[in-house]
Prior knowledge:
The protein contains 14 helices and 12 strands. By secondary structure, it is α/β, with parallel strands linked by helices. The strands form 3 sheets. The protein has a 6-stranded parallel β-sheet, sandwiched between helices. It has a 4-stranded parallel β-sheet with strand order 3-4-5-6, sandwiched between helices. It has a two-stranded parallel ribbon with strand order 1-2. Strand 10 (269-272), helix 10 and strand 11 (293-296) form a beta-alpha-beta unit. The radius of gyration is 21 Å and the shape is globular.
Amino acid sequence: MLYINPKLKGGSVTYALKLIKEISRLDITNTYVIYINKESKDLDFNVGDNCTFRVLNFEYKSAYLRYYWEQCILPYYLFKDKIDILHSLGYVTPLFTRAKKVVSILDINYKGHSNNMSSHKRFLLGLMVNLSAIFSHKIITISEFSKRQIVKYTKAKEEKIVVTLLSGSSDEQVVSQNENSLKEKYGIKNKYIIAFSSPSPHKNIASLIEALHEELQFNHQLQLVLVGHKDKNETLDELINNYSLSAKIVFTGFVPNEEIGGLISNADLFVFPSLYEGFGIPLLDAQSYGVPVVSSNAGSLPEVGGNAALYFDPYDINEIRSVIIKALKNTSNLESLVEKGIENRKSFSWSKTALETLDVYKKLYEK
Length: 367
């Protein structure tokens, strides 16, 4: 888990923490060694006595340094600790080690997020993912969409790839937090649509604002709440200023995990406008809180949302607008989405993810 940069938490970190927790709970027969960098030692791993940690003297300052440690230093510790099976959770695995190798390639982000990476970073990541796909005994990915992407962009054989779907941020029932206190804290004054913001252009926030500007201008009872920080791209500021929406759009900045659920659960509608997603954990979070979902049809999102969301083409602003307005204006439609969403959410759990992952280990060990 040298790939984890605690300053950039996201779906890949959630995947690692939830998977390790469930594996340590479900498998009390085998022992596990978890290799982490110095910056990750304070993360809430919440594991059992069958797990031990080896903190390597490595700080995540660059991807290049991470690759050096994974390829040149980590194999020494794997040999020293007599590791039988190595599961690398972050796209890249040591190429030369005696341990049988499983690598999790969550998506092909150097293609899907290409406009957010420098050319040399895309090249290096693509090279390392390709080599990891070839040298690994098994590849785990998190959606059928990502599996197709791996087959398309790497030289991995399809039979090596196993899909283990993920789940939401939590499989436990979460009680909504006080609506008024959260609204006051984040400057929310009306009913609101919620979406997740990010400095990454693939989140497609500019198109969402463009699609909603008329509704936000003329519906005085509606705001758009964007969880996260504003993209530094000047396009967003220009849009907001041109449409005079500074009072109607809220960028929350950093939100503690314990408050995100409260913000989602009190929203009238959850919108996921992304151009590319390997899975889509926030979509399941919205469904678990009984919030209707309107989503992009890109990547894995239709696979995750099933028939419990309304979908739009994220490149078509008119379609984004019409689908969202249709959802807002049709109360019976919203009620149906909520019911279907709660049912769809039942199909996903971290225990299921862990059991399917353990099955990969078992079959590989038996060989």
